[in-house]
Structure formats: structure tokens, C-alpha cells
Design a protein that fits this description.
The structure holds two protein chains of two kinds. In chain A, about 75% of the residues lie in helices and about 0% in strands. Chain A has 13 helices and no strands. Chain A starts with a helix and ends in a 6-residue tail after the last helix. Chain B starts with 12 loop residues before the first helix and ends in a 7-residue tail after the last helix. Chain B is mainly α. Classes of the chains: A mainly alpha, B mainly alpha. Chains A and B meet through helix 1, helix 6, helix 7, helix 8 and helix 10 of A and helix 6, helix 7, helix 11 and helix 14 of B.
């Protein structure tokens, strides 16, 4: 078992390295760089070529690409993300507050999605092919179909027209004023939570359906066990793994995937930061953000694989 | 991730099709899966609307009418007008052309490229499989929208480039699922027979193995259709997709729609309904197709 965990852990390294290399290269392929973005538009327009070259040299953009990559990876190995090419501030500082915001929204969405998805999925599976099942399926497919940013617009519209009220647009950290903070973040959490819950509901349903057909469930029924006990002890426990997996993966993606919904609620989270960073050609910041989200995803995958292997000893790669 | 996907023997499409051709098959499908049939009907209507946009749209979607800015829904403008006095209904009708073009192309190319990669990877096995899988792992680690955003930044935002940007993130997702199905196909005697007969690798992959992973391929294709439409809407909403004045649903929701939301809520409501309905229909149909072809396959 430990050998498997170690092997699986080491397998994360090439994937992470690959992600780093891919995003690094992708960014260099994008036309233009941060110096151009800075000086070719706005107040700095018309700077002389000498100034621009000097600026590039200062940021290390004049070095060969492999050299730049080496510097970045060397920094990463020392847990040093470097400084933003646009603002010059350390990246950890740039990310800190926005990470707190995105993390909070993602956590709230997860709680909401899980609370909604588990009962719905189980009921749908138990009542397969009845109107209850159809209703749950339509509800969850609708959740996958409605863009969360549109749901956000509808929410704002609803409050505006009915109550002449708009959710607060300025971010208040939770520890400053929990009420104000919740008032702002609950809506984006609900907007993305609906889609999220739809994914989890569908997985719960199909996973439960599969488990309910197993022999040991029939045996439990035959023993005359209480239905509730069969469901919770025997069925749900075995059906949970794939459900936990999608919840984990969705959570990892939510951290960075809120891009569009953040725009609607005027949230200054990681998604908005990513869009800004890519528009400004802020290589270092974009790289760090992508690596952060990808590592979350890769790590969740690792934990899930280990859990599968732990629960089912037949699984080895 | 791979462990949540099943590598069951694929269902033989031909054998499970009832006798009497496609008409009988579709009647049978709609009787057994009413939800899927509803989805299919909406899809057909949408395709018809997109194809006949120039005949059924009451107005030119680009015609600006400053006399009727932000007009409420009425007999002349059924769904109202936008900030430029353009007819919302006509823009939605023409928008379906954009959405379906992007959706169908991206899903078809993405799923097909992914299928060939997945089957190839499973067929060759060994080192090739390992390398391809690692590369796919890397690309899957990027959230869909982030990879698409990066692609748009690289390619620029014309329609073909937008389609490419949406297609690329789909390829590894498809390759992963198809590979797990293809692994069991590879062990089939007819593949051995084909190899013994001396057929080329590409012939075995394309003619013998691909047709036998049709079930997961079709399921993924319908799932990708909805996702591609959503992704296009998101990118256009951010201003990074289809550009003004081209009518596109996501674009109709951005900018003025939010600004004038209180005065002209129809601008924000109707295009959103169009997006949701389109994706809803594709998902509904795809879901039932999945249940019919390969119930154990899990797509999100």
C-alpha cells in the first residue's frame, strides 16, 4: 500500500512539470508581452525603443526561453512564486486576498451542492423511471444547461425589481463583518452551486443505481433489514466514492473556474485576476494562477486514487 | 479519474437496433425514453430555425433603429429591442446559427480527434500509450475555460479561431473515455484476425476498432455539444468570443444587458433562455442516448 501511495505521489511530479511547461510555452506564443501591453497603450505610449528594451531586460524577457523557464522552475522548487511582471509586487501578496474570496465561494458552493445533491440523487435512484426520477433529472439537467453567469444576472435582476436592492459590490472579508460578507458571497455561491449540485446529483443517482443492483443489497433485503439501514450502511457507503470524486474535482475547478460568474457579481477573485493577468501578458502571475488551480486538481485526483486503492485492494496501477 | 470510468465491452449498435430501420427505432426510442425524445424534438426545431434564420427572422439582426431603443416586448417587437433598437427575437434567431455552428463543429472535431487518439493509444499500448496518457493528463488538469481563454489569447477571436479554442480542451477528455472502452475492444478476436491478415495499423484503428467504440463516442459527442455552446456563450460574454455586431447569445448578455437590466430586463432574460434551452435539449437527448447505449458510462 505504501509503495503504491509513494508511486502514485511521484507520478504527480511529471504531470505538474508538464502543466508548468505547457502554460509557460502557451504564454510565450501569445502575441505581445507585458512591456508592450504597458507601453503601447495608455499613458506610457510612445516610449522609445531603448526604454522598452531596458524594461524587458529588467524583467528577464530578453533571455532565451529555456533560461526563463529554468529561472521560474528553480524559484518554484524553493517555493518562490516570484513577483508579478505588471505590478512588481510578490505574487503571493497578489493572490492572497483573492484566494480567500474564491476559496470561500467554492466552499459555500460545495456545502450547498452536497446538501442538495445527496438526497435528490438517492431519491431519484430509488424511484427510478417514476415521475420523481424524471423531475430530479430535469432539474439537474437544467442545472447543467443554465450558464451560472446568467443565473447570477437573473438573481440581481430579481432583487432589483422586487426589492430595489443589489447585493453589496465591495468585498468585505469574513473576519471583518461576517454578515456583510455572507450577503455578498452567498449569491455567486448559489449561482455556481446549482450547476455543481447538478453534476453531483447525476453522479449520486447513477452510482446508487449501480450499487442497488448488487447481490449484497438483495441479501440485505432478504435478511429483512430495515430499508433505511440498507440505504445508509450498505448502499450509500459504497456509492459514495465516485460522488466524492466529482465533488472534489468540481471543487478544484471552482477555485479558478469562476471566471465568468465573478464578472457578474463584481467579485475580485482568482478568475478575474486570471483574465486580467492574461490580458496584461503578466506571465509570472498567469503561470502561478494556472499552476495553483492545476495542482489543486492533480492533488484531488491523487487523494481519490489513494482512497480507491485503500477501499478496494484490487485496484493497483 | 480513470477509475471512475468503466471499461466495459461496448454495446453493439447494430445488433441492439430494432428491426424496421430508423423510423421504427426512433418510435421505439421515444416510447421508452420520453425525456430524450423531447430533447431530440427541441434540437430538430433549433436546427431548423438556424437553417432558415434568414426567412423567419422578422427583422435584420444588425438593423439599428434609434427610434425603438430598449422597446418593451410588443406586437412589433415580440421580445423587445436592445440598446441599439435591434430586434431581440431576430438576434436570437440568428444567434442560433452561431451557437450551433460552434457547437457542432467543436463537438464533432473534438470528439473525433479524441476518439482517434484514444483508440490509437489503446491499440499501440506500451510506451506510446503511457506517453499519450501523460500528455492527456496534463491537458485535463487545466480547467476548460482557462485553457479556452489561453487559446483565444493566442489565436485571436475570429469565429474559426474561437471554434479551435473550444475544440482543443475537449480532445483529451474524449480520448480518456474512449481509450478505456477501446482497451477491451483491442482484446477482441477480430482485431487479432485483422492483425494476422496483415492490415495496416491505421486500417485496424479506423475500420475495425473505431466503429466499435461508437456508443461512448456518440454519448460524448452530445455531451460536448452542450458544453461547447456554454463555453462559447461564456467566452462571448467576457468579450473574448464572437465580436459585435455578430448576433450571439452570450454576447447579447454582456455589456448593455446588465447595464440596462432594470429598464429592459428582456435583454438579459431571453438570450439566456435560448442558451439554456439549447444546452438543455442536447443534454436531455444525450442522457437518454447514454441510458440506451451504455448505461455504465459516466459523462458529466
Amino acid at each position: 500500500m505504501w509503495q503504491f501511495i509513494l508511486k502514485r505521489f511521484l507520478l504527480m511530479i511529471p504531470t505538474l512539470f508538464g502543466v508548468a511547461a505547457v502554460i509557460f510555452l502557451l504564454l510565450r506564443i501569445i502575441p505581445g508581452d507585458v512591456v508592450e501591453a504597458k507601453y503601447m497603450s495608455g499613458e506610457g505610449q510612445g516610449q522609445s525603443a531603448v526604454v522598452i528594451a531596458a524594461e524587458r531586460a529588467k524583467l528577464g524577457l530578453d533571455k532565451p526561453v529555456w533560461h526563463q523557464f529554468g529561472i521560474w522552475v528553480w524559484g518554484l522548487l524553493h517555493l518562490d512564486l516570484g513577483v508579478s511582471m505588471w505590478t512588481g509586487a510578490p505574487i503571493t501578496e497578489e493572490i492572497e486576498l483573492r484566494f480567500a474570496l474564491s476559496l470561500q465561494v467554492a466552499l459555500m458552493a460545495t456545502v450547498f451542492a452536497t446538501l442538495l445533491a445527496l438526497p435528490l440523487g438517492v431519491i431519484a435512484a430509488l424511484k427510478q423511471d417514476t415521475w420523481v426520477d424524471y423531475a430530479v433529472r430535469v432539474f439537474s439537467i437544467a442545472g447543467l444547461a443554465m450558464p451560472s453567469f446568467w443565473l447570477g444576472i437573473l438573481m440581481i435582476l430579481f432583487f432589483l425589481i422586487l426589492f430595489q436592492w443589489v447585493p453589496p459590490m465591495v468585498y468585505t472579508p469574513f473576519w471583518v463583518d461576517p454578515w456583510q460578507n455572507m450577503l455578498q458571497l452567498i449569491w455567486p455561491a448559489l449561482a455556481v452551486g446549482y450547476r455543481y449540485s447538478a453534476v453531483a446529483t447525476r453522479m449520486t443517482r447513477s452510482s446508487m443505481l449501480e450499487v442497488l443492483r448488487e447481490d449484497y443489497i438483495r441479501t440485505a433485503h432478504a435478511k429483512g433489514l430495515w430499508l433505511k439501514l440498507i440505504l445508509v450502511r450498505h448502499a450509500l457507503k459504497n456509492a459514495m466514492l465516485p460522488v466524492i470524486t466529482v465533488i472534489g474535482l468540481e471543487f478544484a475547478f471552482l477555485l479558478g473556474g469562476l471566471v465568468v460568474t465573478e464578472q457578474v457579481f463584481n467579485l475580485n477573485g482568482l478568475g478575474l485576476l486570471f483574465v486580467q493577468a492574461i490580458a496584461r501578458r503578466d506571465y509570472t502571475l498567469t503561470q502561478s494562477l494556472v499552476l495553483l488551480v492545476a495542482s489543486a486538481f492533480i492533488f484531488v485526483n491523487f487523494v481519490m486514487d489513494v482512497m480507491y486503492a485503500w477501499i478496494d485492494p484490487r485496484i493497483r496501477y | 479519474m480513470a477509475s471512475t470510468l468503466h471499461a466495459d465491452a461496448p454495446v453493439d449498435l447494430i445488433a441492439s437496433r430494432p428491426r424496421g430501420g430508423w423510423i421504427a427505432a426512433s418510435v421505439d426510442f421515444s416510447r421508452r425514453r420520453p425525456l430524450g425524445a423531447i430533447g431530440a424534438v427541441i434540437v430538430v426545431i433549433m436546427v431548423a430555425v438556424a437553417l432558415t434564420a434568414r426567412f423567419i427572422a422578422p427583422y435584420d439582426p444588425l438593423a439599428i433603429d434609434f427610434g425603438a431603443m430598449l422597446a418593451a416586448p410588443s406586437a412589433t417587437h415580440w421580445l423587445g429591442t436592445d440598446a441599439f433598437g435591434r430586434d431581440v427575437l431576430s438576434r436570437i434567431i440568428y444567434g442560433s446559427e452561431t451557437a450551433l455552428t460552434v457547437g457542432f463543429t467543436a463537438a464533432f472535431v473534438g470528439a473525433s480527434a479524441g476518439a482517434v487518439l484514444g483508440v490509437g493509444s489503446a491499440y499501440f499500448g506500451g510506451k506510446i500509450d503511457l506517453v499519450v496518457q501523460r500528455i492527456m493528463d496534463i491537458f485535463i488538469s487545466f480547467p476548460l475555460i482557462i485553457l479556452a481563454l489561453a487559446m483565444v489569447a493566442i489565436l485571436g477571436n475570429s469565429l474559426p479561431n474561437l471554434i479551435t479554442a473550444i475544440t482543443i480542451p475537449m480532445i483529451p477528455r474524449c480520448a480518456l473515455v474512449i481509450r478505456s472502452s477501446a482497451l477491451s475492444v483491442r482484446e477482441m478476436p477480430y482485431v487479432d484476425a485483422a492483425r494476422a491478415a496483415g492490415f495496416s495499423h491505421s486500417r485496424i484503428i479506423l475500420r475495425h476498432m473505431l466503429p466499435n467504440v461508437m456508443a461512448p463516442y456518440l454519448i460524448l459527442l452530445t455531451a460536448f455539444l452542450g458544453q461547447a455552446i456554454l463555453l462559447e456563450a461564456s467566452l462571448s460574454f467576457l468579450g473574448l468570443g464572437v465580436q459585435e455586431p455578430t448576433p450571439a447569445w452570450g454576447l447579447m448578455l454582456s455589456g448593455a444587458a446588465v447595464e440596462f437590466a432594470e429598464r429592459a430586463p428582456w435583454m438579459a432574460i431571453f438570450p439566456g433562455i435560448a442558451i439554456s434551452l439549447a444546452v438543455f435539449a442536447f443534454n436531455l437527448f444525450g442522457d437518454s442516448l447514454r441510458d440506451a447505449l451504455d448505461p455504465k458510462l459516466r459523462t458529466l
